[in-house]
Amino acid sequence: MSGPSPRMGRSLLLLAPLFLFLIGFFVWPLFSMMSQAVSDPAVLRLLPRTADVVGEWDRQSPPSMPMQTALMDDLRAVDDDQALGDMVRRLNSARSGFRTLMSKTTSALSDTANPPPDLVSIDKRWEKPEFWIAIADALSPLTDRNLLAAVDLGRNAAGAIEHLPADQSVNRVILVRTFWIAALVTFFCACIGFPYAIIAASLSGWKRDLMLAAVLLPLWTSLLVRTAAWFILLQEQGLINDFLRAIGLIDAPLALIFNRTGVIIAMTHVLLPFMVLPIYSVLITIPKNLMPAAASLGAPPMRAFLRVLLPLSLRGVASGGLLVFISAIGYYITPALIGGPGDQMISSIIAFYATGSANWGMAGALGMVLLVATLLLYSVYARLSSDEPGRR
Amino acid sequence: MEHSLAEFIKFDRITKFYGPLCVVENLDLSIAKGEFVSLLGPSGSGKTTLLMMLAGFEQATSGKILLDGAAINDVPTHKRDMGVVFQSYALFPHMTVGENIAFPLQMRGIDKAETAARVKQALDMVQLSALADRRPSQLSGGQQQRVALARALVFEPRVVLMDEPLGALDKQLREQMQLDIRDLHRRLGLTIVFVTHDQSEALTMSDRVAVFNKGKIEQIGTPREVYDEPATRFVAEFIGETNLVEGVVEAIEGREATVRLPNGAHIVSAVSDGVAAGQPVYLSIRPERIDLAEARGEARNVLETEVTDSVYQGDHLRVQLQNDAHPLIAKLGRRSREFAPGTKVFAAFSAGDCRVIAP
User: Which domains does chain A have, with CATH numbers?
Assistant: First the structure.
C-alpha cells in the first residue's frame, strides 16, 4: 500500500542511464585522475616489512638493526624488475644517490654465497638518516609532493614546506601566465561583447537575428578550424598583414603569430560568444522604457547608462566573464598553435606530463590546482550573484 | 503674457510619419499653463505618438512644438524638464522606492539634505512613507504607480505627461487614482497632458478633452462640451453611448434645426454652425435623455415606438425600442417602472437633448 514508492522507483530507473553515464564517464575518470596526484604506492608495495618497523624510528638516530634486516628481507623478496625500477625512480627523485646505492645493494644481496650481515657493510651511506628518511616518507600511500610541486613547493629534509630552487620552479610562472592571459581575454571579450550585446538587444527583426547568427555561427564551427583560420590570417604573409601593407599603414609585417598578441586575438574571438550570449539574455529582460524614463527624469545618456542599464546588466557581464575566464584557463589548442614557447598555458604542461613524460601524478596535481581555482572563482560568482536582490 | 499662458504648450502643424504611415497629420493644439488636458482616442489614433513627441522620445516629421514660447523640437529629453508617468511604471528595479524618487533630484545636482527632505515630502504626498526602503518588485501595482507619480512630480517639472498610467490597475483602484491625480493637479497647479483610451477617465479628470481619430483631433472641449455637443459622428459614438438617427435638415432657425426622419416624423434639435437646410445629417440622442410614457406628453420631440427588450442593470433600466424606421435605446432611472416587450410607448426628449451632426 505504499503509494509513491513504485512511481519513485520507476522515475529513478529512468534516470539510471544518466547517472551511470555521469559516474562512468565523468565522476570516475575525474576521481581516478585526481587520486593519481596524491597516491604514492610505488615504495610501500615492495617494502611492507620495512614499513612495519620504520614507523617506530625517531628519524634522527642511525638506523637500527631490525630496520636494516627488514629492508634486506624486502629487497630479497622483490621479483618484479619494473616495480623495482619504479621504486628506485621514486626514491631517487626524493634523494639523489639512491639509484647507485640501490643497484649496489641489490647486487650485493643477490650474492647468496656470501650474504652481507647488514646494509652498512654493503655501503656506508646506509648509516645516514637522510636515506632512511626518504624511504620513511615514501612509505606513506598518500603524498603531497605532486600537489606541492604543482605550485613550486617541496619538503626539505626536516619535512617543512619550502620553495623549490629556481631552476625547478616553472609551474607557478605558467599558472600566473595562464590566469593573466585568461584575464586579458575576459577583459577584451567584455569590451567587445558588452556593446555588441547592447546593440543586438536594441535591434529587432532580421537585424537582431543577423547579429546573433554572427555570434553563434563560430560556436557551431570546430575550435580547431577557427584556430587554424586565425593561423592563416595572422601570418606574416597573412591576410591582415597583407591588407595593412596594401593600404600603406605599415612597412614591415607586424608580428601577430607565435606570440602573446596572436593568442589573445584568437582566444578572444573564439570565446566571444560565451560573453555575448549571457549579457544579451540579461539585456532583453530589462524593460525597454527604463532608459526613456531615466532621460525624462533628467539623466543625460551617459549617466542614464551608468546608473540604470549598467547595474542591471552587470549580472550578465559577470556570468559571461566567469564563463570566458573558466574556459580560457583550460585552453590548449589555441596557445599551442598560435602562441610561442612563452605563451604556453597550464593545459600544455598537463598534456606534457600526461602524454609526454607519463607522470600521471603531476598531471593530476596540476589538474587539481586548475579545478580548485575554477571552483573558487565559481563560489565568488555565486556569492556575488546571490547578493543582488533587485531582480526576481 | 496672457497669450503665452494660454499657449504654454503649442503644437504647430505637427506631422509624424512612420515610414509611409502617417500617424499624426497636420495637428494644432494649445494647452494652457495649469491645465489638465486628456488626449482621448482609440489605439493607433496618434495620441501616444503626440505625447512621445512632447516628451522628446520621438521626433516630429514636420511642424513645431513650443513650450512657453520656445521651440523644443531639438531639445533632448533630459533637458525638457517634463515628468513622464508610463503605463508600465518604468521604475528602476535595482533601486529602492526612495532611490527611485531621489533619482531626478540627483540628476539635477541637488544636495543630499534637500534631496532627502523632498523625497520624504513626495512619499508623504502619495502616502507611501513607510515603504521608502522597499524595492519596486515588493509593491503592488497601485503602490508602484504612486511611486512613479511621486518620481515624476518630485522635481517640480514644468509639464507632467501621463501615458495611460492607470491602464494596468483594476477598476476600483483606477477610480481612486483618478481622483487622487485630479486632486494633486488642483493642489499643485500642475500642467498635465494625459493620454487615455478610457472615455470615462478623460471625462472624470480633465479640464479639456481632445478626441483623437486617425492622427487628427476630431474635437477639443470641456468634458461637458464633448459629451453634450459632439461635433462629429466619431466623437458622439466614442464618448458615451448614443442613438444615431439619419435624417434631412428641413429648416434652421437660430440654434435649432428641424430634421425630417425617413418615416416622416419631425425632430427639433440643437445645431451648431456649418449645417445647411436640405443637408442629410445624423441626429445624436443620448439614451439617458429619453423619457418613456404611455401617453403623448408635452415634450418638443415625441417618437412612437414599441419596446423590444428591457434589461435591469442595477443603477439603470436599459430599454430597447423600435419603430418603423430605426431602433432606439433609452436608459431610465432605477425608479422607473418596468416595460414589458411589445408595449407601445412614446419616447420624448427636448430639443436641447439631441444634436445635429454633419456626416
Answer: 1-31 (no CATH), 42-141 (no CATH), 142-169 (no CATH), 171-386 (1.10.3720.10)
